[in-house]
């Protein structure tokens, strides 16, 4: 969380930095700030800092009132997701050193800040904020005063910091230098013609260049128009980053005619899932995961699978458990990443740990993956972000290719994670010869048909919108499901909580009678995810009973069911039909109406769809 941008080059620095922050606002929007270094002809260079609590627009309003006749020579900008200290002007970044000569911005948490703060205060330093970041500002100012070299100063400071941090800094008397450092937190470099960018994410500079360098762990980078880019380690030794080209463009980062990014991303799902599958099933019906860097023998050696993830990605993991166990007969556990390492799970060389992370930067998931690797388990990442930390540190990776997801609430990332997980499950089944080839091939045909069916669901969302608007005055909405419908219920509830700030809860339908049914009163909306009446008809019958139970207590039931399911239609108050598909693949379809339900209900309540309160898209703290 927190988005950071730095720039040196001939363009308007303030415009580049603000434009970058706008594209990174999904990472946090509690406050924003910039530090610009000006270098007027014939006068000493100087530093100006502007920062404001609230969304970026508040900062823009401040900047709009200023004299823009002189362009800055370089600058840095920050959009904050508060960790230490409330969102306020004084806690907003950048923070200045005591002598005002250097300004710094930060993403992450400096874990030993308490000790460093005490040490600095003992020497008379006065703190102006409650942030952990300010210790880095004072330390940097002190080190910069030693030799006036910002890179050297940053190197010395980094050796004193513990925790997770990306730092960017500028100095008042060095108008051609921005220095960055990273540990456990993302930082990429953008390479233009005589101009350089530093940012948390390529989205910040994609309007200007698609050429980038990914920095490694514990690296420091200096960008300068005169000297280009230099990279070194925290130990001061010269080093280098890894060049890559970004394969999407600015259009992907725009709303493209939709009211919100989330609406756009919901509509992109058929294409996104098709992209996940593209080239990964050959003409003979074999799943080809060559890029994953795991041999067939590696897959054969696995005797247990753990799936570890957070939030929506965790829900994708829950669905996958049903698929993997059914298709491969390998035991599969799903764990919340934030809990995983603390309960000392039993892992060894024959355990496959699948970490799922859209951003590839989620700290809880990263720590879980490191724990798994320490225990010698093999780690496969499913991620949407090429070159991010989680895929980089994993033994193997399968990218979901969803394209950039800007809305904080995840939609297309979830569906593409499901598609990628299905591929892994079916590949395991193929290489281990557990399932008959024709069975796997029948499921693969259905998987390939899924994008078309998702498109069909999207075309018929108007009744969902109407139901959502009808539910707008309610104080709670419950979601129930069985089997893979249970994680879908959890996901539907999470979307509604995030977007509408409403009490929404997902339950395994059979659990209701063990307690939660007491939440139901006259008119409570209950969304039921109903499995196909074909196939596992037992499941279908059971959920019909659950629908009857809640209706008997006054609930208004909205059922998501397969087209032509007359039994459900005769019991539910409202019905949303989805095309027929095998039960295990149904979440690819049944999730979509729930996404739309959340967006519409939240819109009716006047909520901010793309940037719900208190959230950030990339959660880089534990
Ligand atoms: C919910 C949502 C979050 C993320 C979670 C994990 O809509 O987006 O719950 O799924 O923070 O993020 P990643 O997948 O980036 O690790």
UniProtKB/TrEMBL annotation:
Active-site residues are 2, 617
Task: Give the first-level EC class, as a single word.
Answer: transferase
Give the protein name, as stated in the record: Glutamine--fructose-6-phosphate aminotransferase [isomerizing]
Q: Which residue intervals define the domain SIS in the entry?
A: 295-434, 467-612
NCBIfam families documented for this protein: glmS (TIGR01135), PRK00331.1 (NF001484)
Provide one Gene Ontology cellular component.
cytosol
Query: What does the record give as the reaction this protein catalyses?
Result: D-fructose 6-phosphate + L-glutamine = D-glucosamine 6-phosphate + L-glutamate
Q: What is its main location?
A: cytoplasm
Entry function: Catalyzes the first step in hexosamine metabolism, converting fructose-6P into glucosamine-6P using glutamine as a nitrogen source.
The protein's organism comes out as Glycomyces lechevalierae
The record's section on InterPro entries has: GATase_2_dom, GFAT, GFAT_N, GlmS/AgaS_SIS, GlmS/FrlB_SIS, Ntn_hydrolases_N, SIS_dom, SIS_dom_sf
Gene Ontology terms: biological process: carbohydrate metabolic process; fructose 6-phosphate metabolic process; protein N-linked glycosylation; UDP-N-acetylglucosamine metabolic process
What's one Pfam family here? SIS
EC number(s) on file: 2.6.1.16
Q: Where does the Glutamine amidotransferase type-2 domain lie?
A: 2-226
Name its cellular compartments.
Cytoplasm
């Amino acid at each position: 969380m927190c988005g950071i941008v730095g720039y040196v080059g001939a363009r308007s620095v303030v415009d580049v930095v603000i434009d970058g922050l706008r594209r990174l606002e999904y990472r946090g929007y509690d406050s924003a700030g910039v530090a610009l270094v000006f270098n007027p002809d014939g006068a000493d260079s100087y530093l100006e800092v502007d920062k404001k609590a609230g969304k970026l627009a508040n900062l823009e309003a401040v900047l709009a009132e200023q004299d823009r006749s002189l362009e800055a020579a370089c600058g840095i900008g920050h959009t904050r997701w508060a960790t230490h200290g409330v969102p306020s002007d004084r806690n907003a970044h950048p923070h200045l050193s005591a002598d005002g000569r250097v300004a710094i911005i930060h993403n992450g948490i400096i874990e030993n800040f308490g000790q460093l703060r005490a040490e600095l205060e003992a020497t008379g330093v006065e703190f102006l904020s409650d942030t952990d970041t300010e210790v880095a500002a004072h330390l940097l100012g002190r080190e910069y005063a030693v030799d006036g070299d910002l890179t050297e100063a940053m190197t010395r400071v980094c050796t004193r910091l513990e925790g997770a941090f990306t730092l960017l800094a500028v100095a008042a008397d060095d108008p051609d230098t921005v220095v960055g450092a990273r540990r456990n937190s993302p930082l990429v470099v953008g390479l233009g013609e005589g101009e350089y960018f530093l940012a948390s994410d390529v989205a910040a500079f994609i309007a200007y260049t698609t050429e980038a360098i990914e920095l490694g762990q514990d690296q420091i980078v200096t960008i300068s128009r005169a000297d280009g880019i230099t990279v070194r380690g925290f130990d001061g030794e010269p080093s280098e980053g890894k060049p890559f080209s970004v394969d999407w463009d600015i259009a992907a980062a725009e709303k493209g005619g939709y009211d919100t990014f989330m609406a756009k991303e919901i509509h992109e799902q058929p294409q996104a899932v098709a992209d996940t599958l593209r080239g990964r099933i050959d003409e003979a019906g074999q799943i080809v995961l060559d890029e994953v860097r795991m041999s067939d023998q590696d897959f054969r050696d696995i005797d247990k699978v753990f799936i570890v993830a957070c939030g929506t990605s965790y829900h994708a993991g829950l669905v996958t458990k049903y698929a993997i166990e059914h298709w491969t007969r390998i035991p599969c556990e799903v764990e919340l990443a934030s809990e995983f390492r603390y309960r000392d799970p039993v892992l060894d060389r024959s355990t496959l740990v699948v970490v799922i992370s859209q951003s590839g930067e989620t700290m809880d998931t990263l720590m879980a993956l490191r724990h798994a690797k320490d225990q010698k388990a093999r780690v496969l990442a499913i991620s949407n972000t090429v070159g991010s930390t989680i895929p980089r540190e994993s033994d193997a990776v399968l990218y979901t290719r969803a394209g950039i997801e800007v809305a904080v609430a995840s939609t297309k990332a979830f569906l593409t994670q499901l598609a990628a997980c299905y591929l892994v499950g079916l590949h395991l089944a193929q290489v281990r010869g557990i399932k008959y080839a024709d069975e796997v091939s029948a499921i693969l045909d259905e998987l390939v048909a899924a994008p078309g069916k998702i498109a069909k669901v999207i075309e018929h969302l108007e009744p969902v919108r109407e139901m959502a608007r009808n539910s707008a005055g309610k104080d709670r909405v419950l979601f129930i499901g069985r089997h893979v419908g249970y994680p879908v219920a959890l996901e539907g509830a999470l979307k509604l909580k995030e977007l509408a700030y409403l009490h929404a809860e997902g339950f395994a339908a059979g659990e209701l009678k063990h307690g939660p049914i007491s939440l139901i009163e006259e008119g409570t909306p209950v969304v039921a995810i109903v499995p196909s009446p074909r196939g596992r008809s037992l499941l279908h019958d059971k959920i019909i009973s659950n629908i009857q139970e809640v209706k008997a207590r006054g609930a208004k039931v909205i059922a998501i069911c397969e087209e032509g399911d007359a039994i459900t239609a005769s019991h539910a108050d409202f019905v949303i039909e989805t095309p027929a598909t095998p039960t295990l693949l149904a979440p690819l379809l049944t999730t979509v109406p729930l996404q739309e339900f959340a967006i519409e209900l939240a819109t009716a309540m006047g909520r901010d769809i793309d940037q719900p309160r208190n959230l950030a898209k990339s959660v880089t703290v534990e």
